[in-house]
Every structure is written in structure tokens, then in C-alpha cells.
Amino acid sequence: MTNPSYKRVLLKLSGEVLMGDQQFGIDPKFVAELAKEVKAAKDSGLEVCLVIGGGNIFRGMAGAAQGMDRAQADYMGMLATVMNALAMQSALEQLGVHTRVQSAVQMDTVCEPVIRRRAERHLEKGRVVIFAAGVGSPYFTTDSGAALRAAEMKCDALLKGTSVDGIYDSDPKKNPAAKRYQSVSYDKVLADNLKVMDAAAVALCRDNAIPIVVFSIREKGNLARVLEGQGVQTIVQKEG
Ligand code: UDP
């Protein structure tokens, strides 16, 4: 049984979770596992939007640090997210889940452009909609893309599936005494610069009252548990 307050959710997956145990790129076996989790969420009756990052292939900031023009590097990052979206589409279709990819950077031969009303229709028909290329502009991230699509598709929550199981008051890798928040306010995340999503994405969720649920997608079955309100997670909402 899913959290009864959720009818439509946006699941944001960092690009790095598509790497599995590799150092770079896409591990099709791991993508297939992720697709099973997405299928289970959809089969539970939810409408599911997906946004996938590109950090497993290319990040604009990394390119800029090596002397590339930042905007140019960011467009390369956006293209990386389209590759990930196509990989996920393929894995979902192998499980019989109907999907559509909509890219904010138009690429007519491989996917649809982002058209909100069309995306609505896809969801009504039980398709998973994968939004690629973030917001379609450089100097943004796919977290901002996820917050934007969650707002325009009127999602009940933004689920951020990543490699860590929530938000901590300090880096748990460096500080064994780090404490995980069960719930934390948008304002505290922004004021304390807690590492969840970039500030623009958090602010957009705050302004549209979209709860952000941070959880580890690396553990099998965790998405389903989180949707039932049970898994280990941190919820970012108005009152922390
Ligand atoms: N990007 C961008 N605009 C967007 C979304 C993404 O310029 O709206 C670029 C940016 O260079 C970013 C890269 O695409 O570094 C990959 O996305 P992101 O870093 O958000 O992926 P993640 O960390 O979630 O894997």
C-alpha cells in the first residue's frame, strides 16, 4: 500500500546510480534493477514521472574546471541525461512498462519535446514519463529540472533516489556521529546549506509546497518501502 497522500510522484535519480559498481557510464544490469523498482511503484497505482541526472557521464562543472566554456559543457551534460533517459526507457520497456521520453532540448528523432499537456495524457494512460535534459538551459541541474517538472505536473512529492539514505547534519563518511534528519524544513536546508539538492531546486519545491523525500535507491525494494512511508528517508517540508 502506498502513502495514501501520493497519487502522482516525480522520482529523481542521480546519474551516478546508473553506474552500479562501475566508475563511469551505464551498467545495464543495474538499470534493469532500477526499472523493476519503478515498475513496482507504477503497479501500485501511482502515476510516475522520472527525471534522471547525467553525472555518471558528464557534468558541466567538471568540464568548466578543465577549461571548457561552462555553457557548452552544460549542454554536453544535458545530452548525457538524454542518454540515461533512453537507457531507462529501454529497461522499462523490457519489463512491459510503457514509457515516453520528453526532452527539454529538442531531439525529434529520438524522443518527444516537453509538452505538459501531452505528458498529462501519457500519465493518464498509465505511461511513465521520463523528462530529460533538465530545464533545458545551462547553469541549472537536473535537480532543478526535477523540481520544475514536479511543480508543473502537480506531483504530490519529489522522491530523490540517491546513494545516501537521507540528509545528515554533517558528512556521515567523515563523521561517524553524524545524525540523520527524519524531517527537516526547506528553510533549514537552505540556511545550513545541507547537501540535498541545489538551492534553486529546494526553493522551487518550498515555493510550491512539494515535499522532497531523500532516500537510498541502491537498496533493493527501498522505493516501495519509502512510498509506504516506511523506508529510511529524510523528508524536507515546511515544518522540519
Ligand atoms: N545540466 C544543465 N541544465 C539542466 C540540467 C543539467 O546544464 O537543466 C547539465 C549540467 O552540466 C549538469 C549535467 O547536465 O552537471 C548533468 O546533470 P546533473 O549534474 O544534475 O546530474 P546528476 O548529478 O543528478 O547525476
Automatic annotation (TrEMBL):
Homohexamer. This is Uridylate kinase. Signal peptide: none annotated. Residues 7-216 form the Aspartate/glutamate/uridylate kinase domain. It catalyses: UMP + ATP = UDP + ADP. GO terms for molecular function: ATP binding; UMP kinase activity. Catalyzes the reversible phosphorylation of UMP to UDP. The gene is pyrH. Keywords: ATP-binding, Cytoplasm, Kinase, Nucleotide-binding, Pyrimidine biosynthesis, Transferase. GO terms for cellular component: cytoplasm. Coiled coil: none annotated. Pfam families: AA_kinase. PANTHER family: URIDYLATE KINASE, URIDYLATE KINASE PUMPKIN, CHLOROPLASTIC. It is found in: Cytoplasm. Its main location: cytoplasm. The lineage of its organism: Bacteria, Pseudomonadati, Pseudomonadota, Alphaproteobacteria, Sphingomonadales. InterPro entries: AceGlu_kinase-like_sf, Asp/Glu/Uridylate_kinase, Uridylate_kinase, Uridylate_kinase_bac. GO terms for biological process: 'de novo' CTP biosynthetic process; UDP biosynthetic process. It comes from Caenibius tardaugens NBRC 16725. It is an enzyme of class 2 (transferase). Pathway: Pyrimidine metabolism; CTP biosynthesis via de novo pathway; UDP from UMP (UMPK route): step 1/1. UMP binds at G54, D74, V135, G136, S137, P138, Y139, F140, T141, T142. ATP binds at K12, L13, S14, G15, G55, R59, T162, Y168, D171.
